[in-house]
What we know:
The structure is a homodimer.
Chain A: E1 5-11, E2 25-31, E3 39-48, H1 52-58, E4 76-84, E5 94-98, E6 106-108, E7 112-114, H2 121-124, H3 130-142, E8 150-154, H4 159-170, E9 174-179, H5 182-191, E10 196-199, H6 205-212, E11 217-222, H7 226-233, E12 236-244, H8 270-273, E13 277-280, H9 290-302, E14 310-314, H10 319-327, E15 334-338
Parallel strand pairs in A: 8-9, 8-11, 9-10, 11-12, 12-13, 14-15
Antiparallel strand pairs in A: 1-2, 3-4, 3-6, 3-15, 4-5, 5-7
Helix pairs in contact in A: 3-4, 3-9
Amino acid sequence: MAARMQRRWLIADRPLGRALRDTDFRLADAPVHEPGAGQVRVRTLFLSLDPSQKGFMENVASYAQATATGDVMPGTGVGRVVASGIESLPSGTLVRGELGWQEEPVIDASRLTLLPEGVPPTAALGAVGMTGRTAYFGLLHVGRVQPGDTVVVTGAAGAVGSIVGQLARIAGARVVGIAGGPDKCHVLVRELGFDAAIDYRSEKVRTRMRALCPSGIDVLFDNVGGSLLDDGLARLAPGARVVICGAIARYNADPRDAAQLPPGPQNYFNVVFTRSTISGFLVQHFESQYVEADRRLAAWHADGRLKSLVDVIDGFEQAPRALMRLFERANVGKQLLRIEEVTA
Amino acid sequence: MAARMQRRWLIADRPLGRALRDTDFRLADAPVHEPGAGQVRVRTLFLSLDPSQKGFMENVASYAQATATGDVMPGTGVGRVVASGIESLPSGTLVRGELGWQEEPVIDASRLTLLPEGVPPTAALGAVGMTGRTAYFGLLHVGRVQPGDTVVVTGAAGAVGSIVGQLARIAGARVVGIAGGPDKCHVLVRELGFDAAIDYRSEKVRTRMRALCPSGIDVLFDNVGGSLLDDGLARLAPGARVVICGAIARYNADPRDAAQLPPGPQNYFNVVFTRSTISGFLVQHFESQYVEADRRLAAWHADGRLKSLVDVIDGFEQAPRALMRLFERANVGKQLLRIEEVTA
């Protein structure tokens, strides 16, 4: 009897120093396997799309596992156990983990986690997942936000940015989001409770910042880099904390080639006059504190104070397209790919 | 009877957005006054030259008192009391303070301090003065240097840099200095005990850094900015502290004009992968801890572990020239102007 087949997306080329292309990915069939002892077979329901995935393909990031062309595209997702070789994860269980871009992978149970109690799959990949943790540790631990602070977030309508703004409000801070286009700005203020939003495409960012942050910026949470970072550095309050989380403006450059990288922040020297700090972090640095963060994020999500803003694309074959949306800055909230409707 | 006259240097023009010129200064005569109650008249012996003085003339720095053309050029110095209106500072006393560029100013005694016990005037303006304090707080408090750290200092043969390197050694760290030219590099290693020096004029800085800092840079103490800062950012160790103290590469630009400023540090994003921080400070932020710093700096200076490297130009009329040397990167160690020999 011929093996049943599943589809997988493979890495076909390294997008180093350029934008992603369709030809960087290759859709391939592979046999569906039975799980061994301690393993489960999972049907993938949702995949998370993250800018770091381009870095994984480029294979230059020191913090990620090496990849090669021909490998299954790495990626986190939520799936349902459909065949189990371990009692603790019976068929039907929803799990989260590094599933890769494959429809029906077999995974070691030790590499999967249950979804937090009462958290739907979309939130488990967003506000109450790695995205939420990134916002949480970046704003609270690295940015050390305080009640009354003025927080400015770039990429505010993105996955992390949309959470950072809401956490800033929960922490008693004022928050100004910077995003591209009136629709995104509308969502920030009307749906997520940001105090104000600046549309960098149509507004003069520095002029608006001056009006909206009359005492300066206490926490600048940067997901973008480029001129928006420079605009923020020009308006720091004394003792400001600048949190470098992302730099969507850089991700199409080869980081080893200065000629490709966008200009650095000319206003970095303002940290001297304002005795400020610019700090970088990776969420993995806080792994020992995930449990506490998850508990708090899930509670805020449950009581409605933390909304999970998601941008869902349908269809396994759309995975590369969904990833590309991040670099086109098209996504509003967390970019997800839905492979199959979740039925309870 | 005609009043006795002294000479003073006045600000004649604002050097904003350009290098200093001779015509920015004007030498003028002014009458010598008698001190009132609580005042002393001082004969200026040494003046300290500091890059921040150009900023004072430009009148754009928020942290400094406003100046106007026609004002006496501000500047710190050491002088000897020659007429006193206060018992606590009798004639003959050596004092340190904001004397301005004038040969025989009358100053409120409350604005002057005695020289630390056993510290000669040159060191009182250098290793055991504001320069020493800047190095001390920048390296120990902002940079949080630890025994075994690898410290890299840019502008290492400058006033602050030459102290930073010695303090790093005292703290049990390895220190690599970056300076321009073989003479400066020789001084760092042979006279001041640096572990190594890189001549940025003739050597490939990144290649040398890789060889000299195989485990990366734990503390990067930057007095220069520009490409040297970028080179250091490319080589940070995990958890590195980057201390922004100066940026001689920027001081001839108008900070409000992006077109004039040198490029920002393209490699700033490495703080993410290395979970590092870039921190600015002004020594004034640590004013409450000056007493302790002075005590320790004076002790290290007294026992010969902290050398005061000074570059002395003679003659009151040379004051503008002495200041310009800083921006030409001509000085080796602390730049001082000697107006009169000190006789004990």
